[in-house]
Structure formats: structure tokens, C-alpha cells
Amino acid sequence: MKAFDKQHILHPYAPSVPLADMEFVTSASGVYLELENGKKIIDGMSSWWSVIHGYNVPELNGAANKQLAKMSHVMFGGITHEPAINLAKTLLDISHQNLEHIFFSDSGSVSVEVALKMAYQYHSSQGDKQKSKILAFYKGYHGDTFGAMSVCDPVTGMHSAFEAVLHKNIFAQHPECRFDAVWDEKYIEDFQEKLDAHHHEIAAVIIEPIVQGAGGMRIYSPAFLKRVEELCKEYDVLLILDEIATGFGRTGKLFAYEHADVTPDIVCVGKALTGGYLSLAATLTSKKIIQGIEANGNVLMHGPTFMANPLACAIANASLELLLQSPWQTRVKNIETQLKTQLKQCESLAIVKEVRVLGAIGVVELHEATDLAFFTPAFVQQGVWVRPFLNLVYIMPPFIISESELKHLTSALYHVIQEFQIYKNFKDSSC
Ligand SMILES: Cc1ncc(COP(=O)(O)O)c(C=O)c1O
Question: E strands, 270-373, where?
């Protein structure tokens, strides 16, 4: 099987002939992934932010089985069903009161495409076709489809590979003000200048609230988000918040935008929505935006085949129920406290530039670029699954992780980074 994988199956951002062997996972339960040799390793990544309750969760398995016995899929054009209606009710209930409409899609990137379409159609339906650009941020990440790529960081994103075919958007300086830092207006100057110069052609601003994820794992001040929102209002530009990574408790609030007192026009959610069981995402928006789009008889032009898939919606309902009934705030707070204490020791390593923690997210930024060929086997050997990128070694474990499992994970981080430092020094001194 592994030979077939190597010859035929493409993996994310990887050459067709992989540089290293894939880990072969046979099953998963709790926070553990089981490998083919029977070894169990702790998943420090929650399978890219999504598996908040851990794997093989009885409540989610039960919801899936129950829904399978009724129908696993039905088209959403001209048809509706209970799992979608219940999920829409819950999501609109727990999110900002300004959000009254919801569009289901099948992945985070597609929910971003839908958000961009909403923003463009809102202005164009009212005759303003000039507002066709998006103001995005350096170090932002919003997905891999074309619209989403066009609002990702133009340097670390995939603009260089697709430049000729990407929509030309406008980029502002990334948020530099740290989460707890004292606010200074200088941090918003570049954004304000861009808005001032281009607002007549900008349909919306898109930003990941409080944590810029895959573009650099940067945690920033709620005051920055608040100023972004105020300026959007002042310049009549819509505000899209991408909660795909941060939503559902990860930062210590149910939605990261709750750290700041902001009213978004459009919000994207995905990843943890189904507890990591199936791919499902949603774009939430206000009555004002939908009425604006529908002025002159227009409708939002999107409709994926698997829109509001009943199986995924039923699992999402069970996942949200499980989350909301659990002591998730305490769990995330405890993870945060433990990460702050235990990752701090990484700061004693010369190769470590900075440690940052918010909620159930721990980031160790290095002075050197990481190297998967080094890190992957070293982490597996230590009994953990951690997948660094750029110069970032980061973890966002499932919320159900125990104190001792988290201790295992943070110790592994320290030891592997320490080994990397020795390996790098050895290499450097041998050059
Ligand atoms: C903030 C953010 N937006 C959008 C996406 C894209 O989501 P998906 O991979 O489900 O398309 C991601 C994925 O990592 C993300 O972190």
C-alpha cells in the first residue's frame, strides 16, 4: 500500500515523490494516532485545528450512525432537512447577533470564496461595480482556492506560483501589536492609509481575528481588530472575519472576534465545526448584506453539490452540543496555563526566537527555518505528532488532552528543538 501511495497519491504541498516516508495511521482514539507498528503518538495538531474533542468520540460516532440510517446525502437545491436547519439555528444563535443568514459549503477555502462573492455582489447589486478589490493583510492565510489565494500573504502565500492568474488585491501591514501590548495608533497607520487611498475600489477587508494562522502563527491585540472594524465602518467597506482556524473555542473565546467588541458583516467557519469528522464550512452574514445582494432581483451565485451535507451537519450538531455542554473554557484555560509554563523553558534555547501562547495554541518561533526531514522522525520517536512549517514549531492539541499528555507533548517539543539546535550547530560549525 505504501508503495502505491508513493507512486500515485499526491499529498499537501509535497512533491509526487515524497522526500520522506509517510507515517501510516491505522486508527485514532482520544488524543492518540496509532501507527502501523502499533506505536501510539499524541496528535499535537488536532489534525490541523479540527479535532477538538479528540478521535473516535462516542457522541459523534453515534450521531453519524443515526444519520447514516436516515440519509447520508441529499441535494440542497429545492430541498431542506433537519440537520441543516438545526445547525443553522445553533450557529446563528451562538455567533454575533448581526449575523442572520448562513450559507453552508464543503471547505474553509470555499466558505472564503462565498464571503468574497457576498462582498462583491453586495456592492455590485447596488450599481457599484468599482468596489471589486479586497483589502487583506500581509501574513494572512485564507485557503488554497483562487479567490482565497488572492487574499493570502503575497510573499509567503502562493502568489509567486499563480501571479498571472490571481485577482490583484491590496495588502496592508500585518498586525504588529502583541496581544497584551499597549495600543498605539501607529500600528493601524498603514491600514488606514490603504483604506483612505483605495476605499472606492475596496469591497471588503478580510482578516483572521486575533491569530494569523498558517501565514505566521501571529497573535495580535484585540485593539487592532477593533480599529479595523471602526475604519471599515467609516469608509463603507465590509468586514469579513475568517474564523476557520480560531472558531469554536481555540483562543479561549467561542469565536476569536469576541476578544474585541466588533460587529462583523461576514464570518467564515470550518475546521472544528464537525469536530474534525467531515469537511463542512459555513459563511454567516447579516440581513443588510443579503438584502443588498438581492436588490434588483439578484441572488447569491453559489451552490456546491454537497452543500449542507446531512451527515456532516448531523455530526456538527453533535459536536457543538458536546462542546457547549463541556467545560471547554476551563479546559482551554488550563491548556493555556500549562503551555505558558512549560513552553517557557524553550526560551532558554539559543535557537528559539520567541514563545507565544493564546488559549489552546502554543507557538515556538525559531531563528532558523525548520526541516521536516529532521523534525518528523524526531517527534514520532518522542511519541508525538507535530508538523512545523517555516521557522515555527507549534501545537494546538485537542481540548480533551490530559495534563500528563500535554506535559509529554511540551517536553517533546523542548527536546526535539534542543536536538535541532545541536544538529544545526554541528552543521554550521562543519561548514
Ligand atoms: C484561517 C484559515 N482560513 C481558511 C483556511 C482554508 O480552509 P480549508 O483547508 O478547509 O479549505 C484555513 C486552513 O488552514 C485557515 O487556517
Answer: 281-286, 352-358, 361-366
159: pLDDT strictly greater than 90: no
Nearest CA to ligand 1 atom 8: 108
C-alpha cell at 125: 447589486
Closest atom of ligand 1 relative to the 281 alpha carbon: 10
Share of the chain above pLDDT 70, in %: 99
Cell of 140: 494572512
427 in active site: no
| Strand stretches in 36-122, DSSP E | 40-43, 99-105
Q: What's the pLDDT score for residue 19? A: 78
Ligand 1 midpoint to CA 76 (Å)? 23
Ligand 1 centre to CA of 143 (Å) is: 5
What cell was used for 348?
Answer: 532558554
Mean pLDDT, residues 121-150: 96
Ligand 1 atom with the shortest distance to the CA of 208: 1
User: Residue 426: pLDDT band by 50, 70, 90 thresholds?
Assistant: very low
For the segment(s) 2-56+327-430, the CATH number from 3.40.30.10, 3.90.1150.10, 3.30.70.2190, 3.30.2290.10 is: 3.90.1150.10
pTM: 0.97
